[in-house]
Amino acid sequence: MAPFKEIPEEDWKSLIHGMVRRQYHLLVGAGINSECIGGDGQSIPDAKVLAEQLIADFGLKTDGEVVDLRRAYESVENLRDTQGRSRTQYFKSRFSNCTPKWQEIIFRLNWRRVWTLNIDDVLENASGKHKNLAETKRKYFTFSWNDPFIELDREKDNVQIVHLHGYSLDSKNLIFSIIEYLKAFTTRNSWHPVFGDEYHPTGSMLIMSLLTQLFQNLYNEFENRGYFQQAFGYTCVDAGEMLGTIGDINAYLLLKLRKDNLWPIQEKCLDYS
Description:
Layout: H1 9-20, E1 25-28, H2 47-57, H3 69-75, H4 87-95, E2 113-116, H5 122-134, E3 140-144, E4 159-163, H6 178-186, H7 191-199, H8 203-224, H9 229-232, E5 234-236, E6 240-242, H10 249-257, H11 265-268
Parallel strand pairs: 1-2, 2-4, 3-4
Antiparallel strand pairs: 5-6
């Protein structure tokens, strides 16, 4: 009998059968690190807190401007933190040898593959803890996004943990900056296309969504650097809206592309098709 009234009996049986046959994948993000401690003895931070810590630890000057994780990460690339560590050393120290709290219970279920957006080794250490407690012969193998794709023999009951943004023990292949995203999406035989195919019934939709977000990030970066001011114009505090060489942008786009509702790009691009 299904334990939840909202789940029909047949669906519950199908779910259980699928789990037994290891048909299901698990995707986890920042929330899976709740209550975990990093290799430096501090709580593992979320993106906002990590950006603030990078700024403070590397002495980055922001002049009061709000700086997100991507920009903070890029800005400290050639700096040293208060302990004299490079950015690579900093991330390896903080996100390696992490201590899991409750995450061992994840591995009590028969996942075909575990995908993570995190760079730390919480899942690896949690799976090791589970293996000791359960006395199981199941093995867990770690892959980073740039490792060659390998399909493990499911009959041997082994499980892959795939880090889509890189792995702390190999801090040279992390994905936070624009350049790193470009590298990831243009690298052949990486795990990202596999993720798109496996995790979503129409994997191309997922990949297109990620590419659209990448385009938005690139556009915002160039916009912040003032590359589009001459063509698109800009807003002046005293004079108001100053037109660029294109003039009326909506009219220009409609004339050239025969489509409306495309401007402003940073607001509309996620709906582009």
